[in-house]
Amino acid sequence: MKVRNFTKPELAAVVAAVCVGEVSILSLPFILGGVVERFAVSSGAAGLVSSLQFVSMTVIAAILTTCIHKLDRRKLALGAVLVTICAHFIAAMYTDWNLYLASRVGAGIGEGALLTIGTATAAATPRPVKTFSIITFGYVVLATAIYLSRPMLHAYYGSITIFYIALVVSVIGASFLFAMPRLEQNSAVSVSAHNVWRPFPWVLAGIACLYIGVNSLWAFSERIAVNLDLDHDQIAMAFVVMILLVPASPILANFAHNRWGYRKPIVAGVILQCISCALFGGALFYEMYFITFVLMNIALLYLVPLYRASTAVIDPGGRIAAASIVVQTGATALGPFLVSLLLLSGSGFLAVGIFGAILAVFSGVFSWRVARRADSSTSPA
């Protein structure tokens, strides 16, 4: 796409696409809890089912990565949101296990496409850190609405609540997608394949490590709380406080980038992520759970705009940004899958926390090369 500033409706459409694409990821702990309650399966089995959805997201994102710079993104986004709405409708209205599995595959395809389209389109802006910070702020606001409304709705509708919420979010988001920017080919997508994909293994390996580590803990954050004998009010309080504080993360990321570029802010975020993951997995009491849960999510949403923007600096056409969704969704599937295997084998959450901390360090190591290249390609604005 042509590198340019978006109009407000276009920017709203990009934010809406990412928000609808993120809704299952943002709701993952409650989806897992809902599946456990609704179908009477173990936490490990629920994690495997959710992994199926994220595998579907990964597959569709991988397909779109090869051709996203050639497609009419508006038509594609509208088709994807229709699939998403149908999938969430089935999950909310039917209790058949096989239909539920099919709905998760459909939701994965629709949400994966929307997430890829929104992220790739956001890369075509002259200030990608600012754009990705706005997007991150947008889905933080969405998460706030989900976490604040869920406890009250759960009292009336039970485990099915989260599927109703996902359906409503998808329908509302669809109304914004008619303003999605269309394809505008120019020199932004004429960079040779060799130059575009040469840093591919490094930046995407870093993003993969970040999401595998965090989602290993995020997916089971509600189960960790239950393991500590916390009640629904305590769990809700942790989520609400977290969601009230994390809007500062993308703002801080944009400020830090303007002042120091990419590398120093990334190092600071990785250190915070490493410490919080290790302590969250080994939480022994409510205060420890509360503080580390908040810090872990602050660190994640601080790092995401910086990692995404580094891909946009290298390729404004959006191919590497789209590929980052492949690794994000793949990592989101792989994280709960690995934890499910650990739990089914008898391991505890402390090992998961250490695992997440190690991966946080590796994410910084792998992202360093691309961050250095991004620093040399652009000066902070």
Fill in the keyword field for this structure.
mainly alpha; Growth Hormone, Chain: A; 0% strand; 381 residues
Task: Summarize, please.
The chain is mainly α and 381 residues long.
CATH topology: Growth Hormone, Chain: A
What do the pLDDT scores average to?
Answer: 84
**Estimated radius of gyration:** 19 Å
CATH homologous superfamily heading: MFS general substrate transporter like domains
Looking at the structure, what is the overall shape?
globular
Number of helices: 16
Order of helices and strands: HHHHHHHHHHHHHHHH
The overall strand count is 0
In the CATH hierarchy, what is the class? Mainly Alpha
**What CATH architecture label applies?**
Up-down Bundle
Strand content: under 5%
Distance between the termini: 21 Å
**Could you list the spans in which at least 5 consecutive residues all have pLDDT below 50?**
186-191
Helix residue percentage: over 70%
* Total number of distinct structural domains: 1
- Major β-sheet annotation: none
